[in-house]
Specification:
- This protein has 116 residues and is an all-beta fold.
- The protein has strands at 4-7, 10-13, 18-24, 33-39, 46-52, 57-59, 67-72, 77-82, 91-100, 103-106, 110-115.
- It contains no helices and 11 strands.
- The strands form 2 sheets. Strands 2, 4, 5, 6, 9, 10 and 11 form a 7-stranded mixed sheet that branches. It has a 4-stranded antiparallel sheet with strand order 1-3-8-7, with no helix packed on it.
- Strand 5 and strand 6 form a beta hairpin.
- It is globular.
- The termini are far apart.
Length: 116
């Protein structure tokens, strides 16, 4: 079993930055990918960013050039650096560690609120 603890959310003004963290409770091997998702009120959960086991990254069009996903293996932590935040980025952000059908863990979510 793995616990994922997210942190770093909060209330910021548009144009500012936040860094989200997702710390795993133990070393994790055989990860296929780690992802960040967001879910705004009344909307479906959306994929924001991905980092694969090989370190390949991918982003939703809405965040390209503004958000950066990274991973610190020594700390068992993945980050989402969010720059130039916009009010439409307001959502609960979730991390997900995926290593196959029997290894699929989600964090509890962290609220990001961007005021205009």
């Amino acid at each position: 079993q793995v616990q994922l603890v997210e942190s770093g959310g909060g209330l910021v003004q548009a144009g500012n930055s936040l860094r989200l963290s997702c710390a795993a409770s133990r070393n994790i091997f055989n990860i296929i990918f780690i992802r960040w998702y967001c879910q705004a009120p009344g909307k479906q959960r959306e994929l924001v960013a991905t980092i694969t086991s090989a370190g390949i990254t991918g982003y939703a069009d809405s965040v390209k050039g503004r958000f950066t996903i990274s991973r610190d293996n020594a700390k068992n932590t993945v980050y989402l650096q969010m720059n130039s935040l916009k009010p439409e980025d307001t959502a609960v952000y979730y991390c997900r560690y995926f290593g196959g059908a029997s290894f699929d863990y989600w964090g509890q979510g962290t609220q990001v609120t961007v005021s205009s």
